[in-house]
């Protein structure tokens, strides 16, 4: 559901060349690196850290980039993505707002803003932001926004609307795991356990570390009174997540019922 920065690093090489030649060659006039160029360098280094999972260093480099060039939409988008990784969702929304203020057509910023609102349980704002993403010309991953909208409607209790948007997401990308997982939850609640299991088997096969999908599979087995299979899935959830997390607590609760 979340869109990460996908920057190409081709423009980084000329900038590095300028910096190196300015410091090593004394027979020619020094070329001054502008704030915008230096910001671009910190942006790319920050994104590289983010891709590698070093969130703190990504934050450090991207904050430098923002100070040097506060008018670069991609800098604010990347900072917002870092804030999401740090679970600082209010701060993320501020950064995505700044992104959109600079570039109103930045569809991924609307998408990620919707994701942040979803995490804050502000369902209507999540739907509104993602609808703006869908209306943006050239938006390349509409299934992500559709998934967030579907999840928001599900959390609001409108399973009809949720199903509509989740099915649209799955039509675009049948392997979209979050959409499939939420659809499976809806099927479990509707008593269509076999249908839910069929979906979840595919999700888990492609994403074996998806704890919430395994939790839902455990619930499906529990509904069928296949307690041995359910116990296996719930224990797997506890292997994947902190026992104090929402998924961990629910898995422990079901294990207590089984035992």
Shape descriptor reads elongated
Percent in helix: over 70%
Q: What is the N-to-C order of secondary-structure elements (H for helix, E for strand)?
A: HHHHHHHHHHHHHH
CATH topology of the domain at 1-103: Serine Threonine Protein Phosphatase 5, Tetratricopeptide repeat
The pLDDT mean sits at 90
**Low-pLDDT runs:** 7-29
Rg (CA only): 22 Å
The share of residues in extended strands comes to: under 5%
CATH homologous superfamily descriptor of the domain at 1-103: Tetratricopeptide repeat domain
Structural class label: mainly alpha
* CATH top level class name of the domain at 1-103: Mainly Alpha
Total E-strand runs: 0
CATH architecture descriptor name of the domain at 1-103: Alpha Horseshoe
User: What composes the largest sheet?
Assistant: none
User: Between the first and last Cα atoms, what is the distance in angstroms?
Assistant: 36 Å
Number of helices: 14
Would you mind describing this structure in some detail?
The protein is mainly α and 259 residues long. It has a domain at 1-103: Tetratricopeptide repeat domain (Serine Threonine Protein Phosphatase 5, Tetratricopeptide repeat). The chain is 75% helix and 0% strand. The protein is built from 14 helices and no strands. 41% of the residues are buried. Mean pLDDT is 90; it is low at 7-29.
Describe the structure concisely.
The chain is an all-alpha fold and 259 residues long. It has helices spanning 12-24, 35-51, 55-68, 73-85, 89-102, 107-119, 123-135, 142-156, 159-172, 177-189, 193-206, 211-223, 227-240, 246-258.
């Amino acid at each position: 559901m979340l869109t990460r920065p996908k920057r190409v690093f081709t423009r980084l090489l000329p900038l590095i060349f300028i910096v190196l030649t300015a410091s090593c060659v004394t027979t020619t006039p020094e070329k001054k690196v502008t704030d915008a160029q230096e910001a671009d360098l910190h942006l790319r280094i920050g994104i590289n850290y983010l891709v590698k999972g070093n969130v703190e260093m990504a934050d450090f480099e991207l904050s430098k980039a923002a100070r040097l060039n506060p008018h670069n939409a991609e800098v604010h988008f990347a900072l917002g993505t870092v804030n999401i990784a740090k679970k600082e969702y209010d701060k993320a929304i501020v950064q995505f707002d700044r992104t959109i203020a600079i570039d109103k057509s930045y569809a991924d910023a609307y998408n990620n803003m919707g994701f942040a609102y979803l995490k804050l349980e502000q369902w209507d704002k999540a739907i509104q932001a993602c609808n703006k993403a869908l209306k943006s010309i050239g938006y390349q991953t509409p299934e992500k926004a559709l998934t967030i909208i579907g999840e928001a409607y599900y959390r609001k209790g409108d399973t009809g609307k949720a199903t509509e948007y989740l099915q649209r997401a799955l039509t675009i990308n049948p392997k979209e795991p979050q959409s499939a997982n939420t659809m499976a939850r809806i099927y479990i609640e509707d008593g269509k356990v076999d249908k839910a299991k069929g979906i979840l088997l595919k999700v888990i096969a492609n994403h074996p570390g998806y704890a919430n999908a395994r939790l839902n599979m455990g619930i499906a087995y529990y509904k069928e009174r296949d307690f041995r299979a359910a116990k296996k899935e719930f224990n797997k959830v506890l292997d994947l997540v902190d026992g104090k997390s929402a998924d961990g607590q629910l898995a422990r609760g079901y294990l207590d019922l089984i035992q």
